[in-house]
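Notes from the 1:1 (GR / supervisor)

We went over the backlog. Supervisor wanted to see one worked example end to end before approving the batch request, so GR pasted a single chain during the call. The sequence is below; no edits were made to it. Supervisor asked that the structure be written out right there so they could see what the output format looks like.
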Amino acid sequence: MQHTVSPAPDVHAPIDPVNAETPIVPVLTDPDPTAIPDVVIRRLPVYVRTLQSLHADDILTVSSDELADHIGVTAAQIRRDLSYFGRFGKQGKGYDTGFLADRIAEILGLNTHWDVALAGVGNLGRGVLRYRGFSLPGSSFDIVAVFDRGHHGPDDRIDGIPILPTDRMTEVLLERGIRVGIIAVPAAAAQEIADRMIAGGVKALLNYAPVVLKVPDDVTVREIDPVSALQSMTYYLRDR
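Structure output shown during the call:
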């Protein structure tokens, strides 16, 4: 059963530094994730990145119209998205960029450090492991365990991380409490890897394999398939 989300502010909530008379609801006290459209959650990281960039450029306040211009959505869409999580200001006053970036980051769980497991050390897996975004200051994610089906010796490492056999995956994930996994293996092996990760306690999977994974309802999957993305874009090129 879904919980009703009330937009009414808590009188004991912290005060918006831009609009001192407006309390802010920090986070829903009993949110039901299914009550918030997934497309809204997918937009929140873009809001965080944009707000952090503005704050780094010493732009301390921004209106919803200005923020919309930076992101490429409407101001009404931004206000509607934020309304799922509380009140963050008042029309005409603008948002405090640093404050709002921190609040959305907290909503997304980015104020927590997340250990990540990677399956596959082929060209794709190595590229993911060496992606610079993981090493930037403030990154919430750290790849700490790497698995591969190939024959690797006990001293085989990649960027200092031991390469462990796939058949130890579930055991290691349970021991280390890892809840986020990245799948960078061929399509034929992806479902088996997903099953092993889920058995090890992983609840969030980033899947690079061109296959739709079957997972329990309490596991979230994001799929990245460049070929499918290109195929969806060529539709718009047919008559241009």
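Supervisor's comment: DSSP finds eight helices and nine strands in the chain.
Batch request approved.
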